[in-house]
Amino acid sequence: MKKKRNLTLIIGAVLTAFMLLFLLIGFFYTPYDPDAMNGAAKFAAPSLSHPFGCDHFGRDIFSRVLKGTGTTFFVAFATLLLGGTIGVLVGAFTGYFGGWIDEILMRINDVIVSFPGILLALVFIALLGPGKYNVILALGIVFIPSFARITRSEFLARKDMDYVKSARLMGVSHLRIIFVHILPNTVPSLLSMAAIGFNNAVLSEAGMSFLGIGVQPPDASLGRMLSESQTYLMTAPWGSVFPGLAVILLALGVSLLGDGLQKKGGN
Amino acid sequence: MKYLAKKFGSLFLTLLLVSFLSFFAFSVIPGDAAKSQLGTEATPERIEALQKEMGLDRPVLERYASWVTGFFHGDLGTSYSYLMPVGELIRDKVPITIAITVIAFLMILVVSIPIGIFTAQHAGGHLDRLIMTINQVIMSVPGFFIGILITYLFGLILKWFQPGAYVPISENFSGFIGYLVAPSAAIALPRCSMAVKMLRSSVLSQLDADYVRTAYSRGNSTRRVMYHHVLKNALIPVLTFWGMTIADIVANSIILEQVFSIPGMGNLLITSISNRDYPVVQGILVLIAALIIIINFVVDLLYGRIDPRIRVKD
């Protein structure tokens, strides 16, 4: 069992590091301008000069995947940061203080959690309009309840523990107890939640961009590339395969990393 | 009976809350529906006249009240861009969503239950590890990409179905179902993986229980113990997951309809979002929300049936 546990963590870490490297390169350097159209290279098959081939405008798919992975990562990370921060704050305060606010917020939480995330995100997009930052906002809001719920249960379990009580007796303020005494203890469960959240965010962003209501041109986006290339699936399958692979590797790496960390922490 | 009444009360309240929130949200957004419908022909007088016609000059609460009354009479308002009752627009699309949901859910049940039990029985073995690894990979694949892969493999290479050649239900029922098998499979696959993972851990947690040993000691076969004793208990936590899965299938069919160019509810929703056709968006959302709430309600009731302890506790 021990050998397998490490394997999950290692594969996850390697995959994530690989994808991070990939998008870091894309941030500073792409072999071609990702938006430059080259009529002569229309639907060019993968070759040495275009490792992933070219799309229907003759744009280099390798460069576009490099940029698109960056966009997807940025959206997923920002979503996680937004939803995670607010969710943790809400969960920490409601779990620690309890009372009627806690009661009401958790009821609302229950309703939101029972809805599929993608549907809620669509509602927000319908209200806010499409676009990269609106996707972050929409998905971020959708992620709040799951973070709030897990943080709250951690705080509920810990707020009556002896170390908290003794801190109270020594006159430590509530805020300090929440952020300095209890919060660091919740990090392991928050980390695995973050990994699940990241996986969800990547898949949702790709899905929304695929529908055309996510990231808008000129930003390269993996989801959008997939929807554009679908028409030419028969003649140029590489237009779908490589962006799809990038999405899968990004989501898979982080979720394996989360799984590995969780197993390591549970030991 | 009290359990049922309580559940029914909260069902009704949630429905009312969801419809009010969506109605209110769509009322406060900037941009005037009357103005955007008139486009370049907008003059102050015409806008005012149209606002009156659409009832936009009345207060929100009053409009909501009349919307709810209409809802219970099957009237969901009129679409801005199609100039046609929303109910009529949606009605033709409902069978598609229902068919996809039913097919996908059946696929999940048929595939995940035997595999879930098998992997739990052989936990730690080579085959179990292989299946769980494949599972992990599938869970990271976006559903629409699976759809694209299925289109490529089964549609373009093997030619089992013709991509894009959707058959309306009114034309040919078996053709209609046949075309929906591929998108349903694309939706079902990632959720199958999750279902296997859930069921496996749920069955594993039951295997050490005393009643399993007792069942074996009374001479039951492995198969009988698994399917008659263990499964019944293992399904309790899985039931909630199934409820969520159905809701998830409905939501994801919106995306998969685009992949397989099916003119269903998802297609209508996406176009209406782009056109800012709010009566249609709201009609669809409230309908899906109602469906999800009712599913949760049914799951709650089933819970009480399967596990009487829950009824007593509430």
TrEMBL record, chain A:
Q: Which Pfam families match?
A: BPD_transp_1 (PF00528)
InterPro entries per UniProt: BP-dependent_transpt_permease, MetI-like, MetI-like_sf
Per the database record, which ranges form the ABC transmembrane type-1 domain?
Answer: 69-258
The cellular component terms of Gene Ontology attached to this UniProt record, alphabetical and capped at eight, are: plasma membrane
What PROSITE patterns does this protein's entry cite? Answer: ABC_TM1
Q: How does it sit in the membrane?
A: Multi-pass membrane protein
Parts of the chain that traverse the membrane? 7-29, 73-99, 111-129, 135-157, 178-198, 236-257
Q: Does the keyword Cell membrane apply?
A: yes
Where does this protein reside within or beyond the cell? Cell membrane
Gene3D superfamilies registered for this protein in UniProt = MetI-like
Q: Which UniProt keywords apply?
A: Cell membrane, Membrane, Transmembrane, Transmembrane helix, Transport
* Signal peptide start-end: none
Q: What PANTHER family does the record tag this protein with?
A: D,D-DIPEPTIDE TRANSPORT SYSTEM PERMEASE PROTEIN DDPC-RELATED, OLIGOPEPTIDE TRANSPORT SYSTEM PERMEASE PROTEIN APPC
What family does the Swiss-Prot or TrEMBL record give for this protein?
A: Belongs to the binding-protein-dependent transport system permease family.
- Name the UniProt record assigns to this protein: ABC transporter permease
Q: Which organism is it from?
A: Fusicatenibacter saccharivorans
